[in-house]
Amino acid sequence: MNDNKFKVGQEVIYDSPVGMKKVDIFGYIYYEKDNTWLYAIKLPTSTHVIVREITLQKEKSIFDLKKGDKFKCKTAIGKTNRINIVLAVAEDEKLNQVKYLAKRIAGNWIGYVDVYNAELIEEIIYE
Predict the structure, then answer these.
(1) Alpha carbon distance 94, 58 (integer Å)
(2) Total number of domains in the chain
């Protein structure tokens, strides 16, 4: 038996049949017949389901986004309806920063392309 990857109370990402969802783990058990861990999770709709460990993953860090990931940024006036999609990732070695070239796909100025420092990311969008 291998150790389980996730703990009770941990927020994880569930790769559901209808897309990625942020969920909470409230229980787990080892299923010997299939040699796998099963987790009890609470979906955003407050529904409780049992899923296999393979369908779960840790939340992404703002410093580990990849091409195609989506995020919202912190803004001076608090607008959070702006969703951006990562087009490319670069590391600024001089300033020790991760930067993302991203295009706005929701909110105002759709199609706008800019460079964002990872520290400006307020929320990663899981769909």
Answers:
(1) 29
(2) 2
Count of alpha carbons within 13 Å of 38, Cβ hemisphere only? 12
**Dist CA 73 CA 82 (whole Å):** 7
Residue 106 lies in a domain: yes
| pLDDT tens profile 39-89 | 999 988 888 999 999 999 998 899 999 999 999 987 766 666 789 999 999
In a domain, 24, yes or no: yes
pTM here is 0.74
Evaluate whether residue 4 is within a structural domain: no
Bridge partners (DSSP) of residue 104 are: 84
Same domain, 85 and 38: no
| Cα gap 36→1, rounded to integer Å | 8
CA distances from 33 to 1, 36, 37, 114, 115 (A): 11, 8, 10, 51, 49
| Torsion of the alpha carbons at 92, 97, 101 and 103, rounded to the nearest 10 | -170
